[in-house]
Amino acid sequence: MKEKIxxxxxxLFLKLGFKSITMDxxxxxxxxxxxxxxxxxxxxxxxxxESTTMVHKQIHESINTIICLNHNAIEENFxxxxxxxxxxxxxxxxxxxxxxxxxxxxxxxxxxxEIDECKSVFKQNIEKGITQGYYRxxxxxxxxxxxxYTIIFNINETTISEKEAQKLELEALEYHTRAxxxxxxxxxxEKHLQNxxx
Length: 198
Fold this sequence. Notes:
Layout: H1 2-16, H2 23-30, H3 34-40, H4 44-68, H5 73-87, H6 95-102, H7 104-132, H8 141-158, H9 162-180, H10 183-197
Helix pairs in contact: 1-4, 4-5, 4-7, 5-7, 5-9, 6-7, 7-8, 8-9, 9-10
Pfam family, one: TetR_N
Domain HTH tetR-type: 1-59
Keywords: DNA-binding
């Protein structure tokens, strides 16, 4: 039952917001009593923490699945972006923005965990792109990782609308890729950008 509650709460939090969803809403949606929820979670904050942990796990399992498909480095980034878009398509307000505004302590824990994971994914992608000839050799990988995650996290922290956040994230991905790309990489990037506009 605990897993079911976390799963339903995660779905509702992402769809309607961490602040607006109450324990009553979750209980009503699951056709269980609020008492049942409190049996597993002493308060809403604990449930939010567990929910964000579950979402984090799902996101990184999906990213690992995409990485295992052996796309080229640029295509891989577009596939990861598509996965995020699908996952958060029901959200009107950026979940990261809501979390930072209403539950800053939980947000700090989430961001620390995300930055560590993202650094690893970005590093792997850049190294792969250099090997494949899509990114230039001799770039400062650590700097590029830092630039990119700083831009991405700043977009999500400060942009209320999820739709607007996704638009800015695409622009950040293009900016990031162009800064590292070889001519071969630019051609590949242009192909993916064109496909998005079809």
